[in-house]
Write a structure and sequence with these properties.
123 residues; alpha+beta; 4-stranded mixed β-sheet; 4 helices; 4 strands; globular
Length: 123
């Protein structure tokens, strides 16, 4: 199936990179996909089983427990990674495939991965 995204700009380029990544990355029941979605203010992390088509665990800076945390956006992203790792481990997931969502693996996206690793999730 050929999907083409036409146009210029940051959003279109990120979508193109994400589609290119998704050709190779698939989440299974044994090793689901840890997806990171970021905006300018917030970050969302989900652990998704693509074969079953459902979300195993998720965490976001929009949640009440993370909303009041002090610190910069990178510190909040690390907390999101730790929280999603704890919830995934509670659901029985030990290792995941990391999907950066077309974003660069730096800054907040890398902080989510580091936080998940520190909480015991294997990436």
């Amino acid at each position: 199936m050929a999907v083409s995204i036409k146009g210029k700009g940051k959003f279109v380029a990120r979508k193109r990179r994400h589609l290119r990544l998704r050709k190779k990355i698939t989440g299974t029941a044994a090793r689901p996909r840890l997806v990171v979605t970021r905006s300018n203010r917030h970050i969302v992390a989900q652990v998704i089983d693509d074969l079953a088509g459902h979300t195993v665990a998720s965490a976001s800076t929009l949640e009440v427990e993370l909303r009041g945390n002090d610190g910069d956006k990178t510190a909040k992203a690390r907390k999101v990674g730790e929280l999603v790792a704890e919830r995934a481990k509670a659901a029985g997931v030990e290792s995941v495939v990391f999907d950066r969502g077309g974003n660069q693996y730096a800054g907040r996206v890398a902080a989510v991965a580091d936080g998940a690793r520190e909480s015991g999730l294997t990436l």
